[in-house]
Amino acid sequence: MINPKKKADLLFKNCKIVDVFNNRIIEDSLAIQNGRIMGFGEYDSETVIDLEGDYISPSFIDAHVHIESSMVSPAQFTKTLAERGVTTIIADPHEIGNVSGLEGIEYILKATEKLPFDVYIMLPSCVPATPFETSGAVLTAEKLKKFINDKRVLGLGELMDFYGVVERRKDIVDKIKIAEDKFIDGHGPVIRGKDLDAYISAGVRTEHECTTVEEMNERISRGMYILIRQGSAAKNLPELIKGVNKDNLRRILFCTDDRHPEDLIKDGSIDNNIRMAVNHGIEPIDAIKIASLNAAEAYNLKNRGAIAPGYKADLVVFENLDNIVAKKVYKDGKLISENGKTIVEFSEYIDKRVMSKVNIREISKEDIQIKFKKKDRSKANIIDIVKNDLITKNHIEEIELEDNLYNFSKTDIIKIVVVERHTGKSGVFSGLLRGYGIRDGAIGTTIAHDSHNIIIAGDNDEDILNVIREIDCMKGGIAISSRGVILDKLQLDISGLMTTRSIEYVDNKLKDMMKIARNLGVNEGVDPFMNLAFLALPVIPDIKVTDKGLFDVINFEFMEIEVE
Amino acid sequence: MINPKKKADLLFKNCKIVDVFNNRIIEDSLAIQNGRIMGFGEYDSETVIDLEGDYISPSFIDAHVHIESSMVSPAQFTKTLAERGVTTIIADPHEIGNVSGLEGIEYILKATEKLPFDVYIMLPSCVPATPFETSGAVLTAEKLKKFINDKRVLGLGELMDFYGVVERRKDIVDKIKIAEDKFIDGHGPVIRGKDLDAYISAGVRTEHECTTVEEMNERISRGMYILIRQGSAAKNLPELIKGVNKDNLRRILFCTDDRHPEDLIKDGSIDNNIRMAVNHGIEPIDAIKIASLNAAEAYNLKNRGAIAPGYKADLVVFENLDNIVAKKVYKDGKLISENGKTIVEFSEYIDKRVMSKVNIREISKEDIQIKFKKKDRSKANIIDIVKNDLITKNHIEEIELEDNLYNFSKTDIIKIVVVERHTGKSGVFSGLLRGYGIRDGAIGTTIAHDSHNIIIAGDNDEDILNVIREIDCMKGGIAISSRGVILDKLQLDISGLMTTRSIEYVDNKLKDMMKIARNLGVNEGVDPFMNLAFLALPVIPDIKVTDKGLFDVINFEFMEIEVE
User: Fold this and answer.
1) How far apart, in whole angstroms, are the C-alpha atoms of residue B68 and residue B71?
2) Which of A28, A233, A251, B125 is the most buried (most CB within 10 A)?
C-alpha cells in the first residue's frame, strides 16, 4: 500500500497525463511509490524526471495472443512487446499445450513469473483440437484443474470447439465448469442466431474472430467483449473499427492473436492497433482506453489499465497523440525500455521437460511411400494449395505409378509427409500436394497446427528424409534440404515451436530461408513455412493431411488418396 | 447452465428489448430458461407472454443503501423496491451493525437469503463511528473477517473515517487488508488533492457523497466510481447529472443511500433516479445502463445488469422509455411484481438475537438532571438547531437554576437526553436544546446515529421519563408523550431500527406522529424525528450530545455545559 507519509520514489514533471476515465489530458506532475501511482501534483521524491511536455498513459494490454507464433521464447517475446509499450498480455499457450501438455503451460507460467512484464494465462481448452491427429497431450478438465486457481490463470482459453459447446458435450461442459468463477474466451466466428445464443449462454464472454461489423454488433448485443485483432495473418481492425462508437466502446478490446517476427519488428504489437485505430478516426484517448482500461476491466485485472492512485505504475511515455510510439516504458514504476530498446534483462528460464520434444524413431524410405492398389496409373485426391490463403482444394488427377508407388512422375505433384513426433512410435502419412512448387528439395517444420507433428513437402524422398533427420537432430525447427544438403535451418528447440534466440535472429533467418525456398522454386503466393504449418489442421477446408491420413474437411472424415 | 436442447420456460413475444451494450432497441422475442436468458428470437416454450410492444430491460441495482433508513425489515424493504423494478441492492448494514454487531450483519444476510431479490453486503467499516459515544458493538478487522468470504459479501463498506485512511491508522489498514481482494466503498466528501490521492491509493473505489461536478470529475479521473445519490435527505442527482457524458458514463452508478418510507412510496427507489436522469437530458438507455450494467460491472456481479444469453433473467417491463415505470418485474425469470404490487411472498425471518435490543436499567428523575456549580444562574452552552439542516450552532446564554439544577425556566430551552441502551448500565447525559419547540411533552427515539442510543427531547422530566419507559417497553422505536400520556408510538423492535410491519403502516404512523408533534409545538423547519436522530452524531458540526457528554465537533473534544 502507498505510504503517504513517505517520499515518492519517482516524480514525473511536466507531463500530459492521459486520463482514460474522463477522456482528458491532465497537465500535472505524477508521483510513483513502490511501483504504484501515488498521486497527482508535486510530491517530495527520490528521483525527479522532467518529461518536457510528453504524454504519459497507461501501458498496453494484448487481450489474446499466442506467444508461440512469434517463434521466440516468452522472455524474448515479452521483451519485444515491452519495447512497444505493451506490459501485460493474456496468453493462450494452446500450441505448446498441444506439444507438451501441462508441462508446457507450467513452462509458460514459470518462464514469465519473474519478468518485468505481466503474463496472464487462459488454459487451452481444445487440446487436442481434433481427434483426427495425434497430439502431444490430451488436456481434460481434470488435468486443467491443476492450474485453474493459479493467480495468473484467468480462465479457459478460446473454445474453438463451438459445436461441442452448443451441444453441451460432456468433456466441454466439464472444462467450462472448472472455469465458472473465472473467465471463458470464445472462438466461434461462423455461428449465428440460436447457435450463437447457445454458445454464449454456456458462459463464453469474448470473441476475437469477428470479421464484419454486423457479426461484431450481434455479439456485443449478446454481452460479448469483442477483441479487435490485428495479427500477421488475420487483420480485422480496418473493418471492425468502423463499428466502434462511444456507446459500445467499453466492450471493445485489442488483440494480436498471432504475430510473426517480421511484423512485430516492423509494426509492433498493440501499439500498432492503437495507431491504426487513430488513423481510422478513433479518438486517441479512446484508442488507448481500448488498449488499457477496457482489457483490464473485462478480465477483472484490478488496479491496472489507467493512471490513478494505487494503480500499477505500468506506463508509456510518448510524444504525439496522433502517432503513439513508445519512447519510454515503465513497468511497476521502473524504466524497462527507452527509444524502442529494453534496458533491463528479460531472463530466460529453461525447463528441460519442454525441450527436445521431437520423439521419433528412424524414418526410412519405405515409411514415406504412397502405395496404390493399381500398379501403373491411378486417379488420386491431391491437396491443391490456394494462393494467398490457408484453405485448400481437392484436385483429382490421374498420375503415373511405379510398382504401385508414386514416383514423382509429375514435377508439380509432390509429397506432403506428416511424421507424428510425440509418442516415439512415429506414425507416418504421406499425401500428394500441388501448387507448392519446390524443385530438387524438401522443406519441413515442427510448427504444424494444431498438434505440431513434423510436416515436410518435397519432390524427392532423399531430401524429405534428410529434412526429417535434421529436424530430429536439432530437436525441432525448420529445415531446407536440396540434393542431400541442408541449405539452412532454424532451430526451435522449445517444444519444436520457439527458440531463446532473439526475434531479430529469427526474422533474419526466416528471410534467408524464404529466399532459399524461392530459389528452389516455391511459388509466389505460397508462404513456404506458413502454408506448410496449416496443411495439417483438419478444420480448415477443403482437404488436409495429418499423421493419421488424408482428411476431407467438408465431410469431416478421412478419405483415401486413391480414387477408385 | 442453459440447455439448448430443452424448451424455454418462458417466451416474451412482441417486446422491445433494451440493449445496454449497443444502446439500441431490439424488436424480437426473448426466451428464458431456468431463471436465465436463453436467447433472442423464437423458441419452443412452456409459457408464452405477449408484451404487446412494451419495453423489457434489465432490472435495477441500488449500489449503496442502508436498509435501516426505511425503518422496515429487509423483507418489507426489498418488497417495496421490487415493486419499483429494483431486484438487487448493495446494502451496508452500518446501523444495525452499530447496535447488534456481527449478529446484526448475520441477520441481514439470513433475512435476505431466500427472498426473490438479491441483497449483497458491504461490511460496515466504522463501528463505532467515533470513540465519543457508546455503541452496541466494536467491529474490528478480526471480527469482520468472519463474513468476508461469504459469497454475498462484496467487501468493506463506506470508509467514513477518511482521516484514519489517509493516516494509514492500523485498525483501518487491518480492515482494508481483509477486503483487499474484494471491493472498498468510500465516503470522503471533503478531501481534495493529496489527501484524496492518499485516500484512494489505500484501495477505496467509490464515492457517493459528491455534491458538485468538479468534485465528481476529480474523483472519476482518479479511478473512482461515482454513485449518484438521490436519497431522502441528500439529493445530488440534479447537480451531478450535469457532469455525466458518454466518455465517463461507465464510471457512474445510481444509489439512494438513505430513503424514507414516504419517498419510497411516493417516488420510488432507483427508478426515481432513472426518471430524473432522463428528465435532465440523459438518454433513457444510458440511464438504464447506469442503473444496471454499470453497477454490475463495478461490483463484479457476473451475468447481471443486461439482457444477454446466460445472464440472470432479472427484468423490468415498462411502456414508456421517457417515463420508466415498472409494469412487470421478473426475478430469475419469475414474475414477482405487477403494476406496482408484488405477487409473491417476501417471507420474514426473525432472529431473536437482534430483537429486544433496548437494554437499559430503570431511569429515574435524578438521572436526567443537569447540575451546575452555580446555584441560581449560570451561563450555559446550548445546542441550537438550524432549521432545515442537520448542523447545529452553539448558543451561549445565561439561564436560571433551582438549587444548581436546570428547571425549564425558559420555555424555548429544553432538555436533550441520551440514554445508552446497549450495555445495561445506561450511562445518561442530559444537555440543553434550543429551537426544537415542544411544549408540555417529549419525543424520543432509538434511531440516533450512529450508535443508536435513546435520544429524547422534552420540556419536562415526567414526559421524558415516560417516553423512555415506553421505548423500553416496546423494545425500541419512537414515542411521544404529553402530560404523562403516550399520544402515539411506532414500535421498531428489530434492534430499535426496523419493524416487520409494512412500509405503508410506517409511513402512515409517521405522518400521524408528525401531526401530533406539530400540535405540541415542534417548529416548522425541524423534523421532530430526523433532527433528533442526528443530534447524537458527533461528526456533524458544530455541537452534539452523546451518552458520554456534550461534544464540540469543531475542536473534536467534549465540553462542559456550564460556561465558567
Assistant:
1) 5
2) B125
Tell me the pTM.
Answer: 0.96
How many Cα atoms occupy the beta-carbon half-sphere of A160 within 13 Å? 15
pLDDT band (50, 70, 90) for residue B99: very high
User: pLDDT tier at B467 (50, 70, 90 boundaries)?
Assistant: very high
For the four alpha carbons of B162, B164, B166 and B172, in that order, the dihedral sign comes to: negative
Judge: B201–A38 Cβ closer than 8 Å, yes or no.
yes
Which residues lie below 8 Å from residue A555, measured CB to CB, with a gap of 6+? Answer: none
C-alpha cell at A208: 476475437
> Taking a contact as any Cβ pair under 8 Å apart, which residues of chain B between 211 and 270 contact chain A?
217, 220-223, 246-248, 250-251
- Rounded average pLDDT over B514-527: 97
What would the mean pLDDT of B184-213 be, rounded to a whole number? 96
What does the pLDDT average to over A517-529? 97
Whether B326 and B318 have beta carbons less than 8 Å apart is answered as: yes
**Could you tell me where the DSSP H helices lie in A6-64?**
none
B135 Cβ neighbours under 8 A, 6+ residues apart: B98, B99, B127, B128, B129, B422, B450, B451, B452
Confidence band for B411, pLDDT divided at 50, 70 and 90: confident
Mean pLDDT, to the nearest integer, of A356-362? 95
Contact B168 A3 (CB under 8 A): yes
Which residue reads 492500523 in cell numbers?
B170
Please determine, for residue B190, whether its predicted confidence score (pLDDT) is greater than 90.
no
Residue B551, Cα to own-chain centre: how many angstroms? 24
> Do the strands A45-50 and A8-19 form a parallel or antiparallel pair, or are they unpaired?
parallel
Nearest partner of A178 among A139, A146, A145, A140, judged by Cα: A145
Grid-cell match 463451438, residue found:
A162
The DSSP-derived string for B297-330 is HHTT-TT-SS--TTSB--EEEES-TTS---SEEE
Distance of CA A149 to the CA centre of its chain: 24
Of A459, A430, A59, A73, the C-alpha closest to A271 is A59
Quote the CA–CA distance of B83 and A111 in Å, as a whole number.
Answer: 55
* Cβ within 8 Å of A, B 43-72: 43
Q: How far apart are CA B16 and CA B37, in angstroms?
A: 15
Closest by CA position to B187, among listed B139, B233, B232, B126: B126
When CB atoms are compared, the residue of A41, A220, A250 closest to B194 is A41
Does A564 score more than 90 pLDDT? Answer: no
Asked if the peptide bond before residue B542 counts as cis, ω within 30 degrees of 0, the response is: yes
For residue B177, what is the nearest residue in chain A, using CA coordinates?
A: A1
Q: C-alpha distances in angstroms, A368 versus A365, A458, B95?
A: 6, 11, 80
C-alpha cell at A104: 508446457
Q: Which of B267-271, B382-386, B387-391 is least confident?
A: B387-391
Residues of chain B contacting residue A222, judged by C-beta atoms under 8 Å apart: 21, 40, 308-309
Query: Cβ(B547)–Cβ(B427) under 8 Å?
Result: yes
* The pLDDT of residue B335: 98
ipTM for the assembly: 0.95
CA of A534 to nearest chain B CA: how many angstroms apart? 33
The count of C-alpha atoms lying within 13 angstroms of the C-alpha of B352, restricted to the half-sphere facing its C-beta, is 0
For B214, residues 6+ apart whose C-beta sits below 8 A from its C-beta are none
Smallest Cβ distance to A310: which of B23, B201, B221? Answer: B201
Cell representation of residue B144: 469482520
CB B484 within 8 A of CB B466: yes
Q: Kindly report, residue by residue over B286-309, the tens digit of the pLDDT.
A: 999 999 999 999 999 999 999 999
Residues of chain A found within 8 Å of residue B163, distances taken between Cβ atoms? none
Is residue B499's pLDDT more than 90? yes
